[in-house]
């Protein structure tokens, strides 16, 4: 019953699913305010070799090229001391209301199109059909390009701007590439999208509409050639890699955790007992697990 890109959460007799609707005309980016806020990223650590990096090192992938994922470690105790839930509730209703829990160190680098704080809709009839007391739909299609990947790419492109990258590459023919193209256009970063030769024309048209340079790659072997091309540009030519999978970018996965944080806030600080998430590369799963832990902290 749950299609690709949807999320279900259960709290005893409570279920939440995420669905998608086109962007509303009044969807705005965050109000631009320049100013450094406290950075709560302590360090990044390679999950394979254990190498430690600082944000000022501008890390994107482990420099030992071992394909280890870089995990971002936050000082949550310091965050608890610095920001309260009451303060968060006064902020604009987008995912950047949780800025202390995200890695961008200065608001002037934030690239936003109004992503996040999507509605939580109570679905009474579906709840009755399933024999549940409460059922909610978390509608992620209200995001600017129509999927939760906008959260990923808002964070990723913001970090690219902070690091000073002018060009970014992605291996995807779906929502991630569309989101990166849109946020790259917003930031003035050139986007190079490598898509398989069988990619749908509708998806390619969306990439072109946002100004991305699109390259169709013939898939003739087991290894994904689009990933191969993206890595070539990143490792040899200094492009910023920004797919929504694998160990190629540690920042994009920070976006989806705000989905779970919003749900906890929208449920009146109730934390779901169970979460059901369809997975491809599992960035949504990983981010939501982190977000539920963070949401628990918000709930006190």
Please specify the SSE layout and strand pairing.
Layout: E1 8-11, E2 14-19, E3 41-46, E4 52-53, E5 70-74, H1 76-82, H2 85-89, E6 120-122, H3 124-130, E7 134-139, H4 149-163, E8 167-171, H5 175-187, E9 190-196, H6 201-209, E10 213-217, H7 225-237, E11 240-241, H8 257-266, E12 274-276, H9 283-299
Parallel strand pairs: 2-7, 8-9, 8-11, 9-10
Antiparallel strand pairs: 1-2, 1-12, 3-4, 3-5, 6-7
Global Rg: 19 Å
Q: In terms of structural class, how would the helical and strand content be classed?
A: alpha/beta
Could you report the average pLDDT, rounded to the nearest whole number? 86
* Helical content (DSSP H or I, runs of 4+): 25-40%
The coarse overall form would be globular
What is the overall number of helices?
A: 9
CATH class of the domain at 164-246: Alpha Beta
* Secondary structure tally: strands: 12
Question: What would you say about this model in short?
Answer:
This protein is an alpha/beta fold and 300 residues long. Helix content is 32%, strand content 18%. The protein has a domain at 164-246: Rossmann fold (3-Layer(aba) Sandwich).
């Amino acid at each position: 019953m749950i299609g690709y890109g949807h999320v279900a959460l259960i709290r005893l007799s409570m279920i939440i699913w995420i669905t998608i609707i086109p962007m509303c005309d009044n969807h705005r980016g965050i109000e631009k305010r320049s100013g450094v806020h406290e950075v709560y990223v302590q360090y990044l650590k390679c999950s394979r070799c254990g190498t430690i990096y600082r944000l000022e090192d501008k890390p994107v992938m482990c420099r030992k090229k071992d394909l280890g994922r870089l995990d971002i470690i936050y000082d949550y105790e310091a965050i608890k001391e610095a920001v309260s839930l009451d303060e968060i509730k006064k902020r604009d209703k987008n995912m950047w209301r949780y800025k202390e829990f995200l890695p961008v160190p200065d608001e002037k680098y934030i690239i936003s199109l109004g992503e996040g704080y999507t509605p939580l809709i109570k679905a009474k009839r579906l709840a009755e059909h399933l024999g549940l007391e409460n059922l909610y739909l978390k509608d992620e299609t209200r995001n600017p390009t129509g999927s939760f990947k906008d959260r990923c790419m808002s964070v990723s492109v913001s970090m690219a701007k902070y690091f000073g990258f002018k060009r970014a590459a992605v291996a995807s023919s779906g929502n991630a590439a569309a989101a990166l193209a849109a946020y790259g256009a917003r930031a003035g970063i050139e986007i190079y999208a490598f898509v398989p030769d069988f990619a749908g024309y509708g998806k390619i048209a969306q990439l072109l509409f946002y100004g991305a340079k699109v390259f169709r790659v013939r898939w003739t072997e087991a290894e994904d050639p689009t990933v191969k091309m993206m890595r070539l540009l990143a490792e040899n030519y200094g492009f910023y890699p920004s797919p929504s999978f694998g160990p190629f970018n540690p920042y994009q996965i920070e976006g989806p955790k705000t989905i779970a944080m919003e749900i906890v806030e929208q449920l009146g600080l109730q934390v779901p007992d169970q979460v059901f998430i369809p997975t491809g590369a599992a960035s949504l799963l990983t981010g939501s697990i982190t977000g539920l832990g963070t949401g628990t902290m918000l709930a006190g």
